Structure prediction request, 286 residues.
Amino acid sequence: MKKIHVNTTINGDKIDLLCEPTQTLLDVLRDELQMTGTKEGCATGDCGACSVILDGTLVCSCLVLGAEASGKQIETIEGMANGNELHPLQRKFIEHVALQCGICTPGLLVAARSLLERNPNPTEEEVRYWLAGNLCRCTGYHNVVEAVLDAAQEMRGT
Amino acid sequence: MMPSPYGTQLPYEEKNLKVVGTNPTERADAADKVTGRARYAADVNLPGQLVGKVLRSPHAHANIRSIDTSKAEALGGVKALVTFADFPDMPVLHASGGEIMINFRDVTRNMMAREKVLYDGHPVAAVA
Prediction:
């Protein structure tokens, strides 16, 4: 089958690439672009490890076709830090020990970022429900929720 | 120092520590993990690496009469091929597996189908 020409913007950079029609956005990010920050946990849209932000919406990149990214803006974990300056969420995750093996961490960070972009003052319940799509086998989520709430407070300037 | 409530000989000391070690925020891997820079096994792609694939049974319950590997062996680029014949048959023998007991006979029939496939998806052969 003929490859598809995809013209997209990833973390602010314009990217041109060719991909198979059957490749998912996750495959494109990891295999074509070597952006391995986004992880494949289940490939069925259940675990959230592949979370990215597509045109402002939080999606599972394993459920989006690479071709669908054409003309759209994508934000991944690689775009969260500003060079060596970590995003408040990233700093708080480290401070609150909200990660152990770290495989769910990119997905959790992208999901938390998309939450705070629409709701800068979430309640603990709202954080837990928003992050329900991001599974973690290591931490038990408590430190993750604390980190997100703490980062939200810092980002509000309070 | 009060006597240990657990009845041991060692003196019991109250401590304020809640985590193992004193400074968990100094983990060397934390910055890499939160930025996505950390390389896990699945993130590594080396030139010349082999790709493995498992052939799984489409049948839920079936006897294996034979496995013909000749076509796969003849295919250029196939560097390795395994079926149950490449693994030793084990008797009923138990070993402690952490949280469960492992029965080696079960392992030899479950990891890869031996006389019988037991479920749709049961591995029958693997190539690399």
Chain B has three helices and seven strands.
